[in-house]
Amino acid sequence: MVQLTTPISEEAAASLQVGDTVEISGYILCGRDAVLPKVLKMIEDGTAGELGVNLHGQVIFHTAVSPAGVGPTSSNKLEIESCIEPLSRAGIKLHLGKGQLKKETIDALDRNNAVYAVIPPVTALLGSKTSEEKVVAFPELGMEALHLIKVDKYPAIIGAAHGKSIYTREDKA
């Protein structure tokens, strides 16, 4: 089990391999299809500093934060997957979610020394490992606003790293 603490260093991201099991501790961002395009717009406009969170080395969990807790949403939704490359360029090192990503997205992660991890859809378990949460931006989106949460040993499996994916077999022709 690889222990990761946020922010994640370039060296730690580079050392992760497909299939590694990890436990993530520290502060992570939570956002999904409603908010990620808004964050990208802030990056493009040069206003991402207004978030009050340094994106370099950060983890983003593809989820909403509700009274029921957090659980992964499908990372291959168009609005989410299309944000992975530019967010990685902006410094995000680890994307958490569920589902198979396109080869182009996996290659983009590799170019930006970022990785993707799948997290089990176990809301109750994750709730017990979350100690703080606050809205960082876009409160009008309710549970889909950009949140910052503090986690302790969030379990995940590296699903894409260094141009490879857990969802594809190397021996396929």
Give the low-pLDDT segments: none
For the CA atoms, what is the radius of gyration?
Answer: 15 Å
Strand order of the largest sheet: 2-3-4-5-7
Query: Strand tally, please?
Result: 8
Q: Which structural class fits the helix and strand makeup?
A: alpha/beta
Task: Walk me through what this model shows.
β7 and β8 form a beta hairpin. The protein is α/β, with parallel strands linked by helices and 173 residues long. It has a five-stranded mixed beta barrel with strand order 2-3-4-5-7. The chain has a single domain, classed as Alpha-Beta Barrel (fumarase). The chain is built from five helices and eight strands, in the order βαβαβαβαβαβββ. The longest helix has 12 residues.
Keyword list:
fumarase, five-stranded mixed barrel, 5 helices, globular
Helices and strands in order, then pairings?
Blueprint lengths: L1 E4 L4 H6 L5 E10 L5 H10 L13 E3 L16 H12 L4 E4 L5 H9 L3 E4 L4 H6 L1 E8 L8 E16 L2 E2 L8
Parallel strand pairs: 1-2, 2-3, 3-4, 4-5
Antiparallel strand pairs: 2-7, 5-7, 6-7, 7-8
